[in-house]
Design brief:
The complex is a heterodimer.
Chain A: H1 3-21, H2 36-41, E1 45-50, H3 56-70, E2 75-81, H4 85-88, E3 96-100, H5 109-118, E4 125-129, H6 135-143, E5 148-152, E6 162-164, H7 173-183, E7 194-196, H8 199-209, E8 219-223, H9 234-247, E9 252-256, H10 261-271, E10 275-279, H11 283-290, E11 293-298, H12 301-309, E12 313-318, H13 320-326, E13 334-338, H14 339-343, H15 347-353
Parallel strand pairs in A: 1-2, 1-4, 2-3, 4-5, 5-6, 8-9, 8-11, 9-10, 11-12, 12-13
Chain B: E1 12-14, E2 23-28, H1 36-49, E3 54-59, H2 79-83, E4 95-96, E5 102-105, H3 119-131, E6 136-141, H4 147-155, E7 158-163, H5 167-189, H6 193-204, H7 212-222, H8 227-235, E8 240-246, H9 250-266, E9 271-277, H10 281-287, H11 292-295, H12 300-311, H13 329-344
Parallel strand pairs in B: 2-6, 2-7, 3-5, 3-6, 7-8, 8-9
Antiparallel strand pairs in B: 4-5
Helix pairs in contact in B: 1-12, 4-5, 5-6, 6-7, 7-8
The chains are: A alpha/beta, B alpha/beta.
Chain lengths: ~375, ~350
Amino acid sequence: MMPRAVGWLRQNLIDPIACRLSSVQKSSAPNATFSVAQALKAPQNILIVSDSRPGALFLAASQFWAIRNRYPNARICLLARSDRAFIAREIPFVDQVVIYEDFLFPLGGRLRNAIKQLEPDSFDLAFCFSTNTSFCPAYLCYKSGARIRIGFQREKVPFFNIRIVPHQGEDYEEQRLSLLLRTLGIPQVKERVSWSVSKESAQKIQDRFLVGRKPDEQFVALDVSSSTGERPPAKQFLEIAQYIADTFSGRLLVFFDFAERKIAHQIKDSLGPKALLFQVDDLPKIVALLTTCQQLVACNSDLFHLGVAMGLSVNGIFDAQDISQWAPPNRDDVQIFDTEAVKTWTPQQIAEAFHAPQTTQIPS
Amino acid sequence: MFGKQTRPNSSTILLGDAQLEKRVWAVAGGKGGTGKTMVTTNLGVGLAILGYKVILIDGDLGGADLHLSFGMPVPKRNLNDFLSGRVPSLTDVLLPTHSANLSLICGGSELIGLANLPYQRKEKLKRHINQLDADFILVDLGAGTAYNTLDFFVISNEGVIVCNPEPQAKIDAYAFVKNAVYRRLLQTFGRNTLLKDLIINFGNNAQRALKIRDLIALIGKEVPEYASKAVEIVDTFKPKLIMNKVRKKSQLEDANRFIYLVKEYLSVEMECLGHIEYDERVVDACEKMRPFLLDQPTSKVSLSIYNTLFNMGIRDRQLRYDKNTYKKMSQGVKLESKLWKENAS
């Protein structure tokens, strides 16, 4: 089934049914009224629930840092979906990471496992960083038993007792997420979070994975891993990969995941040694490899947002509806193309879009 | 990684150091001609095709010939250059192959007495092998049970025994495992004269079919605090078995009997990774000085080697093949073969 159709089904059919099935108790505690200001003053145990969409952890990292700064002595637990575990486990602002497997409805072993992992902790406060509020993270936020559960307002999502209404006109996802903390008076961090590995570690990783690398060789990265929205067809990925290989002297680093491995294989078969394939499964490895790249072309927002955070020159290919949400303001080195347009690009248009890669490189 | 990292004060998250795994496989066999070099060569080529950085080392110090499998009649550099101090590092004698993922350290035979490597040189070589950067280092060992061979087998994370169905090969393979067990015990307890004599005398008592567990009991009796250590030394030694040149099904049962005997008498858990059929074309590939996998990617022998790789728990870094679809690996090998031919010409 097409990813867009899956997304639509989930948002409009499955999630509402799941919400109805979830039977939220209207007033679970006898003392249902409490002082929010008091509760926010010095919570001991905080749960952060991240959104399950690709890129969400990179976009919300600054907010996690702000929470850590505001509550330096609290124990902070991050709840993340299993396919994002490799990112969640690298976030240093939290004390514990709890991983859950995605589920559709509020029943079954996966839900029980997730709740079982959360049960031993008695959370005072839970933040749900999901502006579109999909069912899974929101429901787990509710089932955590946290006394105060803060999330974004969405119709028929009854899991939060403090609901923040998104601002009109704030489109960029990172800004939208920050509203959750701004509303509660939690100070923002002034700088954006970036990601790096030590010079020695980067060298080790590059020596291991970029075999036969020449001293000044630089690369271009192409991320073909799966995404929630519509994607260009394999043929178009091949055209893009071929264009990059033809016009750029270095090799192409193709990042992929299990779901989209076949596109990666097709590129490898077509380009041979000019393409090196890497599974998206290890954050230090990805960061070390991206530091060698002049440019990143991504249709998955995980590596896109990572590249943006690292200051890399990035081209994103996303659904038109997502563009304003993903495009960082004031970044000339970030371009986003509409997937629908990319689908019909001619080789000439590909050349115009991905002109000669810029020569800026990230300092290691 | 939970809570281990220091909380950052700057805006850059410095990720943890890369923990890059390195596995050292020593390939031995006891008897000569069992196919150790052929297995080492082809496992190495297979691992490189699966996306791993591989270094093959010719550890047959008296009769080096691994380079011949890669079309190198006279290698430009070899282990002698390192051992004699002509070059300071083992990386200086690395030779590229037609695969970017695969490099080679050729053995050298021109130094008289090289097979009997002095202790210090052996230690130097071991130290430098540990410093090499690769996902896999495969050491092709020579025949016999000389201390050098045993020591390189013992230092590897995983040892592979290549055996043939004929009785001579099985007896020599058994002797090799037995000697390796005694070598491990002597390396640990050898400084204690009492235990050293006990182990040597026990090992030399060839007339009686003694079992290692009896030796462990004797060690425990002499020095009770060493008993658990002796058990640990034997328990952690888990060499793998590859039965090569198999002609009929009954010979596969022999492999299981061999594993049973090793368990019964030496208390060593061996695992059979698979078998490789006899095929005359292996000799043809040797004559062509070309790895067999690349010469006959779809042959039964090649399929057995793919299967062996997945039995060893290797996963394809490009997610093309797995334990259930190992036969499809021949497609990737065909492409690699084409690439080697292009590079060679």
